[in-house]
Write a structure and sequence with these properties.
single chain; 279 residues; mainly alpha; Ribonuclease iii, N-terminal Endonuclease Domain, Chain A; 2 domains; 3-stranded antiparallel β-sheet; two-stranded antiparallel ribbon; globular; disordered C terminus
Length: 279
């Protein structure tokens, strides 16, 4: 590991006592596919797991860092939003720690240039891939936690997330797309929308899920994400944006007479307009 990591430590505002932790945090699992090991005498991949090279890539530190970020962000939200419900705090935290946010923070740290990647991952643009950057940032935070404990890892998280937390205070959180879709459909005489996994793709360390959302026997939209939950949210967003959704709701209402709450003109909360949902 060259001297260029000193610049990364300066941007982090933290100097590692155990340099091996920093190296591990920067090493992507794809390095296990290389015939040439980055570290002399590094252990071989675990039997049955081609993507693993136990103790010598960032997945374990990423796991730890994820927990540190969740706790630190949860604490600051608890302090800064004293009157909000548990449900809203959960939504705020989800927004704060989503993959896109962490990838943006990683780019601000210029983390990509320091990553140790397998040749294939490197040549395919892995240094600027959101998922890899987000995972590496969590690994860095996990490494700081291992090196110096929560007294150092918590302030690091708060420094990195300061602008994001300020933005949460300045702007209201968007309604949960899954909740919005469910409320819309149920308010118009329909059942709860159902979500099913259509496919999964990619290695275990970079799995992508594709999910379909269905309602009244009709497929409304597909969504993808790095977790089932993330894919479901994306599918709900796309369903809400689908210009045919009004038409499908009307068709379902016509086939279920007597279940149209919008027939009451006073029920403004459930009135449909062309291309717009009032909820």
């Amino acid at each position: 590991m060259g001297d260029n990591t000193a610049a990364l430590e300066a941007r982090l505002g933290y100097k590692f006592q155990r340099r091996s932790l920093l190296r591990e945090a920067l090493t992507h699992p794809s390095i296990a596919h290389n015939k040439q090991r980055v570290k002399k005498n590094a252990p071989p991949p675990v039997d049955g797991d081609k993507d693993a090279q136990t103790g010598f890539h960032f997945q374990r530190l990423e796991h730890l860092g994820d927990a540190v970020v969740q706790l630190a962000v949860s604490e600051v939200l608890f302090e800064q939003f004293p009157k909000e419900s548990e449900g809203l705090l959960t939504k705020l935290r989800t927004r704060a720690v989503q993959t896109g946010t962490m990838a943006r923070l990683a780019r601000q740290l210029e983390l990509g240039q320091h990553l140790i990647l397998g040749r294939g991952e490197d040549s395919s643009g892995g240094r600027d891939r959101d998922k890899i950057l987000a995972d590496a940032l969590e690994a860095i935070i996990g490494a700081v936690h291992q090196d110096s404990g929560f007294d150092q890892s918590r302030p690091l998280v708060l420094r990195l997330w300061a602008e994001e937390i300020a933005a949460l205070r300045a702007a209201p959180v968007e309604q949960n797309p899954k909740g919005q879709l469910q409320e819309l459909l149920q308010n118009h005489g329909g059942d709860t929308p159902a979500y099913r996994i259509v496919s999964t793709d990619g290695p275990s360390h970079a799995r992508t899920f594709e999910v379909a959302v269905t309602w009244a026997g009709r497929e409304l939209a597909h969504g993808s994400g790095r977790s089932k939950q993330e894919a479901e949210v994306e599918a709900a967003k796309k369903a809400l944006a689908n210009p045919s959704l009004n038409e499908w709701i009307a068709e379902n209402a016509a086939s279920h007479p007597g279940e149209q709450p919008w027939e009451d003109p006073s029920n403004k909360a459930t009135t449909l307009r062309t291309g717009e949902f009032n909820i």
